[in-house]
Specification:
176 residues; alpha/beta; Rossmann fold; 54% helix
């Protein structure tokens, strides 16, 4: 498929970047990485701790540094970005320059259901919100972030897409 293929998944929290990213990496036989885990490893702090101690601005600067450093690696991989990472510090431009960006465009109702099923407990942005509040928060995030997500080279829409479908889209993109 090409010697140095970097695939970066973008989308709202709960869109399946981590789950789908692991499946895709397995199909491609590429290593899988999660940007939040890379940030936590670099700074030896959990994401919520960085937000609390330093604020969102400093978190976004650290996120950009880790993203930039990682995108400059000389190997193939699948990377799940944080939900907000494409929207700050020209990160979407950087992602598109160095990688194939893939927007996982999952219906808000599906994401809301996923987050409402106890998964929101480890996502500070959604903690202690009821189902209706989760849906409203997602709608607000989508309004803010859709512009950036839609700059992706590939957009997969719907609740159900497969790694195989994305691989065929990647091949089509590479050939064109």
């Amino acid at each position: 498929m090409g010697k140095d293929l970097k695939i970066v998944l973008v989308g709202l929290p709960g869109s399946g970047k981590s789950t789908f990213g692991k499946q895709l990496a397995s199909v491609l036989d590429f290593p899988y990485f999660d940007l939040d885990n890379l940030i936590e490893g670099r700074y030896q702090m959990k994401i919520p701790e960085i937000f609390t101690q330093y604020g969102e601005g400093e978190f976004r600067n650290r996120e950009t540094k880790v993203l930039r450093d990682f995108l400059n690696r000389e190997d193939s991989y699948v990377l799940a970005s944080g939900g907000g990472s494409p929207c700050f510090n020209d990160n979407m431009d950087l992602i598109n320059e160095k990688a194939v960006s893939v927007y996982l465009d999952v219906p808000l109702e599906e994401i809301s259901t996923r987050l409402g099923m106890s998964k929101a407990n480890n996502r500070p942005m959604f903690m202690d919100l009821d189902q209706g509040e989760i849906t409203l928060k997602l709608k607000s995030l989508l309004v803010e972030r859709d512009y950036f997500y839609n700059q992706s080279k590939i957009k997969l829409s719907g609740e159900d897409f497969s790694a195989e479908l994305l691989v065929s889209e990647l091949i089509r993109l590479i050939k064109s």
